[in-house]
Specification:
Blueprint lengths: L11 H22 L23 H6 L2 H4 L9 H7 L8 H19 L11 H15 L2 H7 L1 H7 L1 E2 L2 E2 L1 H4 L12 H10 L1 H4 L3 E4 L7 E4 L1 H8 L16 H18 L11
Antiparallel strand pairs: 1-2, 3-4
Helix pairs in contact: 1-5, 8-13
Length: 265
């Protein structure tokens, strides 16, 4: 007589984490992070982690380290820290407690090696893979010759050139005429690359990196959520140089001439 089959793996803690998200967290994110808060619908910026279907919310949200952090640590997870920093929405104390409890449960489940059984790569992982690869495709010689850094530093807004505020990466946006310094920041930290280049997942069959024109246009025109930002010309030669550098970088990708990824976070 053959031996009995092994018992199914114990995924009870992971199942509980998913249930906590669906019962206590998903409705809060749908209410606070969609609509005017920008994280649903089409487009690329900011990250669209509010799925169109409630059934897809858990897999989508947990795929983005830019939402839940790399380790689901409630002390650093952007889903909590960005709100605590006053970025565009607020949570009630009860909502904060429930999101924190869910993140704690995710930490417990994952520390035990438990999952809900899904092996599908989510949009967050796909975006992260594209960004990581792009960091190696960006070439310093192309960057210097194109003159993106100097052009962005000198881009004139209604309150002066961009370098005036962004010389040291204020609000995660770098604009300095120190070309190599700016290049190093963009290629080693995804939060600094993001305002310039972003993953486009609108066609999941062919995801790709694009210039983050959606974000740059919102900032240039001082539209939500950047209504207090000085205006500038989105057709300025600095943006044209950025597009030129993008074309050169994409040529490295399609020609398989990228260097090893430089991203460290």
């Amino acid at each position: 007589m053959p031996p009995p089959p092994p018992p199914p793996p114990d995924n009870s803690q992971a199942i509980l984490a998913k249930q906590m998200f669906e019962m206590n967290v998903s409705s809060t994110l749908m209410t606070k992070c969609s609509g005017g808060a920008c994280h649903n619908g089409t487009g690329t910026s900011p990250v669209k982690f509010v799925a169109a279907s409630a059934m897809d919310m858990y897999a989508t949200v947990t795929s983005y380290s830019t939402v839940v952090g790399p380790m689901f640590d409630k002390n650093v997870a952007p889903v909590l820290t960005q709100i605590a920093a006053g970025h565009f929405a607020t949570y009630t104390p009860d909502e904060i407690q429930k999101i924190g409890a869910w993140l704690d449960q995710e930490v417990l489940a994952r520390s035990m090696g438990q999952t809900t059984g899904s092996t599908t790569t989510g949009p967050g992982q796909i975006a992260a893979q594209l960004v990581t690869e792009w960091s190696g495709c960006m070439n310093l010689q192309d960057w210097n010759q194109t003159g993106v850094a100097t052009a962005m530093a000198g881009l004139q807004s209604t309150e002066g050139p961009c370098i005036r505020c962004h010389v040291n990466g204020y609000e995660n946006f770098w604009a300095t005429d120190q070309s190599e310094r700016m290049f190093n920041q963009l290629t080693t930290a995804s939060e600094y690359m993001g305002p310039y280049f972003v993953a486009d997942l609108s066609n999941m069959a062919a995801p790709k990196m694009i210039v983050n024109m959606e974000l740059l246009t919102k900032v240039a025109n001082a539209t939500t959520p950047f209504i207090e930002h000085p205006r500038f010309d989105i057709n300025d030669q600095a943006i044209q140089k950025l597009q030129q550098f993008y074309t050169q970088t994409m040529a490295h990708k399609t020609g398989n001439t990228c260097a090893a990824p430089r991203l460290v976070n």
